[in-house]
Amino acid sequence: MALQPRVLLVDDDPDFVEATKAILETKPYEVIVAYDGKEGLEKARKESPRVIILDVMMPPPDGYAVCSELKRDPNLCKIPILLLTAVMQAVPHTLYTIDMGLRTEADDYIDKPVEPSELVRRVEALISG
Amino acid sequence: MASILVVDDERIIRDGCLRILGKLGYEVREAGSGEEGLNLLQDGPCDLLLLDLKMPGLSGMEVLQRVRENHPGLMVVVITGYATVESAVEAMKAGAYDFIPKPFTPDQLRLVVHRALEKRALEMEAAGLRKERERGLREIAGEKSRIKTIIHCMVDGVLVTDHEGQVVLNNPAAMRMLKMTAPGDLGLPLREALGRDGLEAWAEKIGQVCGGKSPAVSQEIPIGETTLMAHTAPVLGEDGEILGAVTVLRDIGLLKAMDRMKSDFVAMVSHELRAPLASVEQQLSVILAGILGDINERQRDMMARAKERTRGLICLINDLLDLAKIEAGVVIQYRERLSIAGVLEKAVEILKGEAEAKNLTLHLSAAPSLPPVMGDQRNMEEVFLNLLSNAIKYTGEGGWVRVEARPEGSYLCVQVEDNGIGISPEDLPHIFDKFYRVKNAQTRKIVGTGLGLPIVKRIVEAHLGMVEVESQPGSGSKFRVYLPLDPFWEERHEGKHSAPDSGNFGSPS
To answer: Which residue segment(s) compose the domain that B488 sits in?
Structure first.
């Protein structure tokens, strides 16, 4: 049997994690969870996931910092990253001093909350892309 | 008409004078003795005294002496019976203006009187002018003290430095804000007058303005627990030479604190309110999608309504955050001499990836030698990131985006041009409106807040510039931003514009 694609979900909100995990598990994915940025980085290194779903607003290191670190790591930079955020559109770089370069480092981004079918579609696209 | 007094003990002389001068329209009084003459002088104003030198009682010389003491401005012409040059010279040494020998003809009298009165008129005029000048000086002094009072009462600090950077004026507010000690600081170089709280860099900046090396600057200075906003402008003399600089200081600590609170509030709202709501909605979505098992019709119905309510709340929070964004986007915090080429290069660098992802050609043509503008670096980055990011968003695969900067009169014109989907004539007048988004089949999938262009417009206008757009649906859009050039640059750095290199960036390779 072919190995199930491993998806790493990084978010500090356990309720959101539970719901999102349930959505992802409707597909034949192996879902691994990390509850903060540091744990996310560790698991990205150890578990070599096929896709990483990364929340932006977390206690440091936040999603941008994690994304930036992953993309600078030659062993991990190939893993597609889907940024998940409640603030992407609403709070721009003026207030948030978000370096837009980081935003473009991610492979895709999606607003929170997300329709289950849309989330599955995006993750599917990243895995097959 | 002039008033004349004739003092002579000879009646015939008095009558003759009365007759001749009366005919000319003068007001003439007469006195037969020195004592009587002095008394008459007390009674009313007199312009000219015709005085006989040889009289019984008080002599003419004695009268002349008293007149000089008590009526210093009065013109005196002596009448000398014996026509000796000595007595006339003596009288004139004693202050008489002229003399007339007895006997005299009517013409001689008229001539002497006329000349004396003319002299009198000139002296009066000169005295008037002198008085006026004194009053003028008093007024200037008064004006000075009024201005001083106004400056001293100001809540904002005022600090004036001369062309050598020495403090020549500071009001109590400035001294308090900068923690300077009493007026002893006057005359000290600014560096020494401040010298304490690590304000050296700022003093240096002011020194550059005083020395004509830098135009007006505005900057924030953290001092103690608060922050000052300091606007420094050169003071120019009549010929445009720099006499020094005036700095106005405002305590913006409270504003900064409020700004921080607002930012904190925005962060709090987005994280503490929006995130849990997102979580709730996510959970509802999972149940509604039947992922955790079947639910019945009534359960589904209620869940759907609950989801709608959370969605409404999330939208409301989004709007609140958008408003905070537009307010935050237009505060000019710091204005400095800026190279737009640098700003454009940075914007292109940041957005290169997005353009590459859509296979767009991104071309920048802005020579580093372009004359600089006065602006806030972050605000300018915001303007061109927004315009460029829009151009990329609204241009299809394989298209191009061109950025070009060139001086136009006293402005720098930056044009961001694309060959994207363009803007319809109906939408064109509204694209700078808050929350306006072009909605059609082509734009449906494009993410945005409808606040990017309003922010561009507000920032550019806050910099005393303007923004224009030209567009044809289907063939692309041209946005032009005009920013005023730094007016001090041209005068002082002419000839440097001709640096040869032109910065091309991201051109097709």
So the answer is: 336-492
